[in-house]
Design goal:
This protein has about 210 residues and is mainly α. Among the domains are: about 40 residues, no CATH class; about 90 residues, no CATH class. About 55% of the residues lie in helices and about 5% in strands. It contains five helices and four strands, in the order ββββααααα. The protein has a two-stranded antiparallel ribbon. A hairpin with a 5-residue loop joins strand 1 and strand 2. Helix 4 crosses helix 5. Keywords: Metal-binding, Zinc, Zinc-finger. This is C2H2-type domain-containing protein. GO terms for molecular function: zinc ion binding. InterPro entries: Znf_C2H2_type. It comes from Mytilus galloprovincialis.
Length: about 210
């Protein structure tokens, strides 16, 4: 009960009003992604939710009749689109068959023309290959291809023209063939040396027997 004094100095007694205690408002923070129904009591929780992307999308319930109408409209639309695509494909097939004919040998395997290196190109690549063997650090074909475009002569002119440029793959193939070629040469030299040594030993044996 509350007592209030008015201007006439009379006392008026007012009944006390019990104000219901309201709970603290919760879930003040809503997910900014459209359709997500998640809410949070702290901004930090919202930030974490947005960062992780764990949204909760719940479709709004619609009357059964509206849902049936939507499904029917989608089916009609899909049927019309499917029929149109079949007609278009049929027209394209007829047009292609009537306007184009397969050339003879179309299924034969295409052979790439083998690139023949010029003497100029071979000299440059062999220089790079020998440099790698001497230093113990093999030349990178990608780097060699780039250097080939910027290589200049003593007079300051570019050493190679545009049509003489080689790709890294072509340089790799050349280096690989050069390795195999030199291995074969070393093997032949070793075989020749062994044969020469055998001949020399045989000659010594014959001379010893004669003497």
């Amino acid at each position: 009960m509350n007592t209030v004094a008015n201007w006439t100095n009379s006392i008026v007694v007012l009944p006390s009003i019990n104000m219901p205690k309201t709970n603290a408002i919760k879930d003040l923070f809503y997910c900014p992604n459209e359709g997500c129904v998640r809410t949070f009591s702290r901004n930090s929780s919202l930030d974490q939710h947005v960062m992780l992307g764990f949204c909760d999308f719940r479709q709004e319930k619609q009357p059964l009749s509206d849902k049936a109408k939507s499904m029917y409209a989608e089916k009609v639309k899909e049927s019309a689109s499917f029929a149109g695509s079949i007609t278009l494909a049929s027209d394209n097939t007829q047009s292609e068959s009537s306007s184009s004919e397969l050339e003879q040998g179309w299924a034969l395997k295409f052979r790439k023309s083998q690139v023949q290196f010029s003497v100029h190109q071979k000299e440059y690549l062999i220089q790079k290959f020998d440099k790698g063997n001497q230093t113990g650090r093999k030349e990178d074909p990608v780097v060699v291809a780039d250097e080939m475009r910027n290589e200049k002569t003593v007079t300051g002119k570019y050493r190679f023209s545009r049509n003489e440029y080689l790709t890294a793959q072509q340089i790799t193939s050349f280096f690989s063939r050069e390795v195999q070629k030199r291995k074969k040469m070393d093997s032949n030299d070793f075989t020749a040396a062994v044969e020469e040594d055998n001949k020399s030993n045989l000659k010594k044996v014959i001379l010893q027997k004669i003497s």
